[in-house]
Amino acid sequence: MSSTHVCPFADPDNALAADLDTVGGKGLSLASMTAAGFRVPAGFTVTTAVYRQFVSDNGLQEAIIDGAKPELVGTAVFFDSASERIQALFAKSELSDTLQAQIAEAYAALGDGEPPVAVRSSANAEDLPDLSFAGQQDTYLNIRGRDAVYASVRDCWASLWTARALSYRHEHAIAQEAVAMAVVVQKMVPSEVSGILFTANPATGERAEMIVNASFGLGEAIVGGEITPDTYIIDRDTLAVRETIIGSKEHMLVSAAGQGTDTRELSAAEREQSSLAEPVLRELAQLAIAVEQHFGQPQDIEWAVVNGTLSLLQSRPITNLPPTPLKDVRWEKPDMPDWVTRGGFDLYHVGTHVA
Fold first, then answer.
1. Most distant pair of Cα atoms in the chain: their distance
2. What would the pLDDT profile of 215-230 be if each residue is shown by its tens digit?
3. Contact partners, residue 214, CB within 8 Å, separation at least 6
4. If DSSP states are collapsed to H, E and C, what string results for the chain?
5. Exposed, middle or buried, 219 (CB in 10 Å: 0-12/13-18/19+)?
6. pLDDT-derived band of residue 275, with 50, 70 and 90 as boundaries?
7. Beta bridge partners of 195
8. Closest to 5 in 3D by CA, of 72, 43, 66, 50
9. Cα 270 to Cα 256: distance, rounded to the nearest angstrom
């Protein structure tokens, strides 16, 4: 297997290939956490080299760049028509036998039979501290079988050209021809509880507290904004829970019997129940601090709990984190020099004459 085409997270021979342009933000993060010894479900990254080879094999590059032009309606810019044109190109194109063989070999190494996997987009311009590409590209959960994996990889590539992604890159002056898509294929874990942890408060910038969003089932319901999760505010120094807010948790996502996911409505009792106990929250917070120390900056971490065991599914820098709030700041009125009052004015009472 060429290390420049398919990179297992845990394969040390692929260390040289683990850079942002080759494996994208998700692939780079997962390889780094795996190498550091964190509990990360096994998987591999289909590199940007495979994307570029697919585009070349099917003669798509010129048509993509030519088609990635906006439509001006009044003063507004739209990419809907451009996206439809490009998506159609991907839909009728196929992976070569060589590319399929490389992906099939890595998939077979994940387990006997046809293990369920999550197939996630990992663009070479994502998960950066100053730009947020969240939700612009696609994720496919509970994918089983080689043919389904091939199709999901191709669909992830196509999602590089959604109208939202095209518009965002246009707005931030990212050259459309410079982007490429790696794809992460990761073994699914049957999440009992999952969610997101921010190692700093993303709303206030407060570094002394961590924010946890959690719910039952697969975390995509939280990531996609489908439900109102439970929220926990954790004191970073003591790891104590400062505040618990029980969300409505309208439903949960579970793996379907075949491909994809199903939605299960939660009972009234389940909705009122806290999804995480305090000991698990403490363990999660300790793990999150270790991940932050590993990457050297505040992190947005996706995690899952199965049979009481925590697994890390992804970690990325928190985007646009506000500065740390100022603390213990007092302002006192300074003593005024004599020449100010003798001059007939008061800086703090403008217009008031001082005799």
1. 94
2. 999 999 998 889 999 9
3. 193, 194, 195, 222, 229, 230, 232, 275, 276
4. CCCCCEEECCCHHHHHHCCHHHHHHHHHHHHHHHHCCCCCCCEEEECHHHHHHHHHHCCCHHHHHHHCCCEEECCEEECHHHHHHHHHHHHCCCCCHHHHHHHHHHHHCCCCCCCCEEEEEEECCCCECCECCCCCCCEEEEECCHHHHHHHHHHHHHHHHCHHHHHHHHHCCCCHHHCCEEEEEEECCCCCEEEEEECCCCCCCCCCEEEEEEEECCCHHHHCCCCCCEEEEEECCCCCEEEEECCCCCEEEEECCCCCEEEEECCHHHHHCCCCCHHHHHHHHHHHHHHHHHHCCCEEEEEEEECCEEEEEEEEECCCCCCCCCCCCCCCCCCCCHHHHHCCCCCCCCCCCCC
5. buried
6. very high
7. 214, 303
8. 50
9. 21
Domains of the chain: 6-187 (3.30.1490.20), 193-317 (3.30.470.20)
| Identity at 18, one-letter amino acid code | A
Q: How confident is the model at residue 123 (pLDDT cuts 50, 70, 90)?
A: confident
Q: In whole angstroms, give the CA distance from residue 30 to residue 42.
A: 9
* Among the listed residues 20, 27, 32, 41, the one whose alpha carbon sits nearest the alpha carbon of residue 291: 32
CA distance 134 to 126: 8
Residues in CB range of 38: below 8 A, 6 or more apart: 287, 290, 291, 294, 312
Q: If you average pLDDT over residues 136-157, what whole number do you get?
A: 92
Please list the residues that pair with 120 across neighbouring strands: 139, 184
